[in-house]
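dumping this here so i dont lose it
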């Protein structure tokens, strides 16, 4: 069993065995998708699989834990980090777990957005609250739309993407609070 097939199957025991058999594999990029043209870090790949509904987030969390225990780099960046992926793909619980594991909060993605931008756009109130409590910056404007996370939340309220939750009003309130 490979890292990829274990994640695809939601098999934490198989993943643990594969990680033990191949030291360093917790950070090997995984090619996937049509023509295997997508290449992502294992922590990112877990959120991709949840987004595709191949596995549930409940199944995914022990996979994330196994990857982290095996030394998976929570801050690996390839256009974006695993925290960007969790926020943009609607895997809020994974995002919370990555913050607990030391994910950097204000890393810029491919067009200057932070994980807070994505969590706000996707209406993930618990993730936004945790990012704010951990010190994520609210005044960063992305380079594509020139908007802050509050602007992304307002846009997400009326322009929902797959993976969005219904917490946009709560997110907007959190981001409009004094000191946010």
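and the seq i came up w/
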């Amino acid at each position: 069993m490979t890292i990829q097939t274990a994640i695809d199957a939601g098999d934490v025991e198989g993943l643990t065995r594969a990680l033990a058999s191949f030291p360093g594999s917790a950070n090997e990029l995984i090619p996937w998708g049509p023509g295997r043209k997508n290449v992502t870090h294992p922590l990112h790949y877990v959120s991709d699989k949840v987004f595709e509904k191949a596995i549930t987030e409940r199944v995914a969390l022990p996979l994330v834990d196994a990857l982290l225990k095996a030394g998976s780099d929570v801050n690996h960046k390839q256009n974006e980090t695993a925290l960007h992926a969790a926020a943009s793909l609607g895997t809020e619980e994974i995002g919370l777990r990555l913050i607990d594991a030391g994910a950097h909060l204000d890393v810029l993605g491919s067009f200057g957005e932070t994980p807070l931008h994505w969590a706000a756009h996707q209406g993930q109130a618990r993730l936004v609250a945790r990012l704010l409590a951990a010190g994520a910056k609210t005044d960063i404007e992305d380079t594509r739309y020139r908007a802050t996370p509050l602007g992304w939340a307002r846009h997400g309220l009326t322009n929902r993407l797959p993976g969005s939750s219904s917490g946009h009003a709560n997110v907007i309130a959190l981001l409009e609070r004094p000191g946010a």
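Residues 105-180 form a domain with the Serine Threonine Protein Phosphatase 5, Tetratricopeptide repeat fold (CATH 1.25.40.20).
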